[in-house]
Amino acid sequence: MKFTLRHLVYIAVFGALWGAIEMTLGAYLHVLLPPGASYLPLVGTAITALGLAVALVGRRFVPQAGSIFMIGVVAALLKLLSVGGVKLGPLLGILIESGLAEVVLLAAGRAGRFSLALAGALAVASAIPQQFLFASLFLGRNLYQTYQGMIKEGGGVFALEARYALVILGLLLLIDLALGGLAGALAWEVGRIAQVRLARE
Amino acid sequence: MERTWRAWAIGPYGYLVFFAWAIVLAALTDGPCLVVVLLVALCFWRVAGGRWQELGRTQLWFLLTSPVVLSSILIGEKDIVLGRMAVSSAGFWIGLWMALRMIVVVMAVGVLTQAVSIATLARLFEGWGLGGLGFALGLSVNLLPTMRRTVEDTWSALRLRGGLRQERWRALRLFLVTVTVNALRHGDMVVEAAESRGFSATPRQGKTIGWQSGDLALTCVLAVASAMLFAA
């Protein structure tokens, strides 16, 4: 991964933007909202999608392999300075999401509207398997306990009983995919407009 | 004698190991173990040249007390009455551990920034094949306040013009475009400033930074301390 000076500065700019979103919005919402608030999982997903949209816009300005992952590394390290305290979960989450988006774009070959939307969708949807991974790694919970917690939380969001577990899981996954896909599409559009506007100057 | 001490001096790797140790332990521990981590971090921070005055800043104490106060009021069942206000003891402890973690992070960041310059950090990352990451990271820390101001200004402008009342998707797009364009303009100014000072992104040819005896000794001490903390 060899970047020019301009690319490195852009990586720092987009990393700082993602970091600022996570540090301010993310940390305050997780500190201030009461634990167990039924809308909390959706708020977290929306913040992840917004941060990822910033990183995907960055890919348009640093069209090189590894740029999204570098932006993610910068944002994750900035997250260490967050007012919400040090939490390894969100930090690793940023790294996994940026890594996944990077892999999708590498496989797609070109950062078009569809590939950005796909990268966003898969990266945001990775939050669900991440919950299982982090709950077993950091909280010592087994897969079933995590599954039960997720169903309970999701049930609260959609006002559904636990017996509709598969529907709840499906809806959570669908929302993650939709928000991630929207973030990717938004990133493509924002990047295009910003490029045109900057070229005019 | 002085020569022996110099051989055991802690180098950049030692400070990086300490930084990683403090962050990981702060995240994984609470209760008495976290207090031990804090004491170790405090000692190291003082040895690395930290000054007591730095801990007396009002801003820092506001940041540290706010989680304790907020979580006592917002989290858990209110089981203690303080004057006219009821607070939660569970929330208090959660907030206290959060605040202690923040102090450990502040100390760890303080040690790293005092002892390892951005240029050394950049050289370390270059040595690991991640050329430029140290530079990008150092720059992003400096850019954070500017980025935050850009986001706030754009948001205020959009709100004052009534942009959020209708066509919310368009408003969100406009917001992101304006933030991106302003951030990139600022980035371009940074590029021009860096180029005019002769900064180059290509790896410099120079002596690579290696592990010193002090770094290895510190790593062993911290590994033993971690094992003892987790065993306790």
Write a short abstract of this structure.
Chain A has 201 residues and is mainly alpha-helical. Chain A has helices spanning 5-32, 40-61, 67-79, 88-108, 113-125, 127-138, 143-158, 165-200. Helices cover 80% and strands 0% of the residues of chain A.
Keywords, please?
heterodimer; A: 201 residues; mainly alpha; Arp2/3 complex 21 kDa subunit ARPC3; 8 helices; globular; B: 232 residues; 2 domains; 9 helices; 2 strands; 73% helix; 3% strand
Question: Can you describe this structure?
Answer:
The complex is a heterodimer of chains A (201) and B (232). By secondary structure, chain A is mainly α. Chain A has one domain (5-200): Orthogonal Bundle (Arp2/3 complex 21 kDa subunit ARPC3), CATH 1.10.1760. Chain A is 80% helix and 0% strand. Chain A contains eight helices and no strands. In chain A, helix 2 packs across helix 4. The mean pLDDT of chain A is 80. Chain B is an all-alpha fold. Chain B folds into two domains: 2-128 and 209-231, no CATH class; 133-196, no CATH class. In chain B, 73% of the residues lie in helices and 3% in strands. Chain B is built from nine helices and two strands, in the order H-H-H-H-E-E-H-H-H-H-H. Chain B has helices at residues 2-7, 12-28, 32-47, 58-74, 89-115, 118-127, 133-160, 168-196, 213-231; strands spanning 80-82, 85-87. Chain B has a two-stranded antiparallel ribbon with strand order 1-2. In chain B, helix 2 (12-28) packs antiparallel against helix 5 (89-115), helix 4 packs antiparallel against helix 5 and helix 6 packs across helix 7. The longest helix of chain B is centred in the last third of the chain and has 29 residues, at 168-196. Chain B starts with a helix and ends with a helix. At the A-B interface, helix 1, helix 2, helix 3 and helix 8 of A face helix 2, helix 4, helix 5, helix 7 and helix 8 of B.
